[in-house]
Specification:
α2 packs across α5. The two termini are 24 Å apart. It is globular, with a radius of gyration of 19 Å. It has 200 residues and is α+β, with helices and mostly antiparallel strands. It has 6 helices and 9 strands, in the order βαββββαβββααβαα. A hairpin with a 7-residue loop joins β3 and β4. It has 2 domains: 52 residues, 2,3-Dihydroxybiphenyl 1,2-Dioxygenase, domain 1 (Roll); 116 residues, Roll (2,3-Dihydroxybiphenyl 1,2-Dioxygenase, domain 1), CATH 3.10.180. The strands form 2 sheets. It has a 5-stranded mixed beta sheet with strand order 5-8-7-6-9. The protein has a 4-stranded mixed beta sheet with strand order 1-4-3-2, with helices on one face.
Length: 200
């Protein structure tokens, strides 16, 4: 097997114009109707175009954020293969995130993993094809604070997170506990990747 080399160029050596935004994500699937329904429900999205081959979904002013492409007879994903681990969407606050959890739970869509990473409080969902989607809320007020957490002793000891029960977190929020307190990651000591962490 050949040696893999990662080529890293500094900004001084290579200046490429950065994009203005991430436009959309496309899924190819043989579970067409199920995938369209899942992302419509998960993201509170609506259809902007659909036929028997392609559906465009959006949840904001963009013409589409998710596209679902109908391709018959695709093979199952292989969990051990390289590829995208998950995609993520951010909500404005903990109340909004947990309200989404409550609505989805009411129709039988539940997260497979809920954890407070430190910079984010996150819930991971799995679509009909096995792709993971993270719904999250930022735990800090600024990007600088979140970035600083990556360089903290807390992150060094536990780069994974502290798992939580979303129903219990919602109960505490509605009982009046402040969002800032609920978003602060508890200290549980060291934690590395193990069987409790869903990594496909």
């Amino acid at each position: 097997m050949g040696k893999t080399t990662v080529l890293a160029e500094s900004n001084d050596q290579l200046r490429v114009t950065a994009p203005t935004k991430l436009a959309h994500i496309v899924f190819r699937t043989s579970r067409y109707e199920a995938m369209v329904r899942f992302y419509t429900l998960l993201l509170g999205a609506h259809v902007t175009f659909a036929n028997e081959v392609l559906t465009f979904l959006t949840y904001d002013e963009e013409h589409h954020r998710i596209a679902v492409l109908n391709v018959p007879d695709l093979a199952q994903q292989i969990p051990a293969a390289a590829g995208v681990h998950h995609i993520a969407f951010t909500y404005r606050g903990l109340n909004e995130l947990l309200s989404v959890y409550e609505s989805l739970h009411g129709i039988g869509i539940d997260p497979v993993w809920c954890t407070n990473h430190g910079p984010t409080t996150s819930m991971y969902y799995v679509d009909p094809d096995g792709n993971q989607t993270e719904l999250q809320v930022d735990n800090f007020d600024t990007v600088e604070e979140e970035t600083a957490f990556f360089h903290s002793p807390e992150f060094a000891h536990n780069p994974i997170g502290v798992d939580f029960d979303p129903a219990e977190l919602l109960r505490r929020l509605r009982a009046g506990e402040p969002e800032d307190k609920l978003k602060k990651r508890p200290e549980i000591g060291a934690r590395q990747f193990d069987e409790t962490v869903r990594i496909r």
